[in-house]
Design brief:
Structural class: alpha+beta
Number of helices: 3
Oligomer: single chain
Radius of gyration: 20 Å
Largest sheet: 3 strands, antiparallel
CATH class of the largest domain: Alpha Beta
Length: 121
């Protein structure tokens, strides 16, 4: 179930002249820059109530507000998928990934991915 979040933060004078998406990443470090850029583009992250572009510069003193929906986190299941392990130690795993093996779950490929195999390994 999606979670509604509402956040606000003020741009400080030292951040003046920086890109909006960079400042947003500093002010809201719990969220990725790509997610913040998406919120800026969709109007879910506003500057003093106004929609802006991620590359626009801030002048300092503005209020950034987020009113967005967070998607429910996915849970990925381990799956017993054969891996061609080239080398393994306690810090490193090198595999020979076959062509066609999807790396991580996404739309159209929810399972049988490298991620599922690694969770099982």
């Amino acid at each position: 179930m999606p979670q509604q979040i509402q956040l606000s933060a003020r741009v400080n004078d030292q951040q003046a002249g920086q890109r909006l998406d960079q400042v947003a990443a500093e002010l809201f470090p719990d969220y990725s820059r790509s997610r913040l850029q998406s919120w800026i583009k969709s109007g879910e992250l506003t500057v003093d109530g106004q929609t802006r572009k991620p590359r626009e510069k801030v002048i300092g003193g503005e209020c950034l507000q987020v009113d967005a929906e967070l998607e429910a986190e996915q849970s990925w299941e381990p799956q017993a998928i054969d891996l061609d392990i080239v080398y393994e130690d306690e810090h490193l795993l090198v595999i020979n990934k076959p062509a066609g093996l999807v790396v991580h779950p996404a739309a159209g490929n929810r399972d049988s991915t490298l991620l599922n195999a690694l969770l099982h390994h």
